Amino acid sequence: MSGPAIRIVEVGPRDGLQNEAALVPTDTKVALIDRLSATGLPVVEAGAFVSPKWVPQMADTADVLARIQRRPGVGYPVLVPNERGLTQALAAGVTEIAVFAAASEAFSQRNINCSIAESLDRFAPVTRLARDNGVAVRGYVSCVLGCPYEGAIDPAKVAEVSARLVELGCAEISLGDTIGVGTPAKAAALIRRVAEEVPVSRLAAHFHDTYGQALANLLACLDEGIRVIDSSVAGLGGCPYAKGATGNVATEDVVYMLEGQGLSTGVDLDALSAIGGWISDAIGRPNASRAGRALLAKAG
Amino acid sequence: MSGPAIRIVEVGPRDGLQNEAALVPTDTKVALIDRLSATGLPVVEAGAFVSPKWVPQMADTADVLARIQRRPGVGYPVLVPNERGLTQALAAGVTEIAVFAAASEAFSQRNINCSIAESLDRFAPVTRLARDNGVAVRGYVSCVLGCPYEGAIDPAKVAEVSARLVELGCAEISLGDTIGVGTPAKAAALIRRVAEEVPVSRLAAHFHDTYGQALANLLACLDEGIRVIDSSVAGLGGCPYAKGATGNVATEDVVYMLEGQGLSTGVDLDALSAIGGWISDAIGRPNASRAGRALLAKAG
After folding, report:
1. pTM, whole model, 2 decimals?
2. Which residue from B minimizes the CA distance to A258?
3. What pLDDT, in 10s, does the model give residues A92-143?
4. Residue B1 forms part of a structural domain
5. More confident site: B111 or A187
6. Structure confidence at residue A21 (pLDDT)
7. Tell me, what CATH number does A252's domain have?
8. Do B180 and A294 touch (CB under 8 A)?
9. Which of A74, A238, B231, B290 could share a disulfide with A212, CB 3.0–4.6 Å?
């Protein structure tokens, strides 16, 4: 028996909500995660152990983790920036974490106040301790197709950072077009270059839909062998109709495309669309998934 | 000297505005068309000579045509359903018209109250008279990837209707995914099948973004040799944030992707984005172009 052709990593409850203006009640987060894990999604990013001063949206992650129903076979990774965060994660019974680095020096400096090399050195003890505790580690690389400060990014730099994260023990590398500027041929070329250093089976594609390019980019990445896709129900992550907001690609749109391509995801699209409509209403924003809106309209 | 790699057919002032809830003042339409033709767009669909009872949004087409500045080298086709419409078009000095047929029998019956064959027979004298007057004719085929009443549509049927429109004298056939249900592999298979009957150089791709698939579908069609793309500034055509609304793919998003792919369009994307912002404000709807919104935000 083989599983779905594509593994969707649902990042709405973390990457999505972290970038929403509204502070979401813990009850809502718990309901969101539990509803998502019931749709067949194999991975639901559940929160982050980061400074509540910097990221107040994630301050209740321990509470969220204590209250969700952990469904067998579903992963609930949390973002962890340092050993303090990892300690909290271990105390919360986390079995998967994610660490992050930028492919842009300027972005690294402005976002986490250190160079890329320093950020990677800082993760070494974190990933070591994680693995000592049997915790799987995912690595996020940001700004892979462009940086708001530097502009274009050399794919070789992305490959180098990705390879270093694998050396540090990351089982999977998620390549993030953080500002959504990529286009398909550039996305494909990036995957090809990174795959020279890290097997494509260990790479995930993480696109934001700022310029509307996310699905087209994913299509190009599928042609390069990508089989893991990060996405966010209802396109959570930045108000989609504000000027220049940078939401994640919507999971509903991704699943609709994949199923149309004959690529199974194991995800119940109607159930997912219902969740997208519900969470959009719950946090008072428009639903940024076009497939979600269309399916909800059909359902009446 | 060779022209742009891709020819964009801007359909916002007709296919777009015709499907907007708001009735747009003639002054605004004239300004929209004149601003669009100044961006480098080679074709700006300018209106329709259809019954004002059925399509009140297009009732002022003769007025619009009398008042726009006709820029040399730019085409201003109008939609024409019958000889009466053609007579009006000729009187207005039109040099390009478009006729339309469905690839779905059920859609043809419900939309124009006759069979596909009857609709094509009805166009025969129209296209003959058009050509006798040196007027170029474009043919639209609707529901090419799905019908709201019939569901899936056989690509062979689309090929048959397209071939018949070419026989009737259409120089170009625009294949329309009217309800936006297509996905990339299906779009590519359609183009391949229709290209067995009509050279791909005479085909245009016309996608609606109902399920968010339009750009990915266009990418797949480009791989099949499509070089003419219909799109609508700001994604005009149905409120984008209403449930199930079915706007055209936004011209800004298309141009952004094409330029990123190294495929020239000759269109000034910044000027186009400004127009998209202006017309969205003017008719009181959100701007449905994500590239447009992002570029406007960057411009400040």
Report:
1. 0.96
2. B183
3. 999 999 999 999 999 999 988 999 999 999 999 999 999 999 999 999 999 9
4. no
5. A187
6. 81
7. 3.20.20.70
8. yes
9. B290
Asked if B217 contacts B209 with a C-beta cutoff of 8 angstroms, the reply is: no
Within 8 A by CB and 6+ apart from B61, the residues are B46, B47, B48, B49, B78, B88, B92
In chain A, how many domains are there? 1
Quote the DSSP letter at residue B232: B
Q: Which residues in chain B are closer than 8 Å to A213, comparing Cβ atoms?
A: 215, 253, 256-257, 260, 291
Segments forming the whole domain that contains residue A179: 7-299
Place of tokens 């599983």: A3
Length of chain B: 300
pLDDT for residue A63? 98
Residues in CB range of B236: below 8 A, 6 or more apart: B12, B16, B17, B19, B20, B247, B248, B279, B288
Q: Which residues contact A72 (CB under 8 A, 6 or more apart)?
A: none
ipTM of predicted assembly, 2 dp: 0.94
Distance from C-alpha of A117 to C-alpha of A260, rounded to nearest angstrom? 42
Residue B2 forms part of a structural domain: no
Q: How far is CA B169 from the centre of its chain?
A: 19
Question: Does A210 contact chain B (CB < 8 Å)?
Answer: yes
In a domain, A1, yes or no: no
CB within 8 Å of chain B, chain A residues 223-262: 241-246, 250, 253, 256-257, 259-262
CB contact at 8 A, A13 and A32: yes
Indicate if B221 belongs to the active site.
no
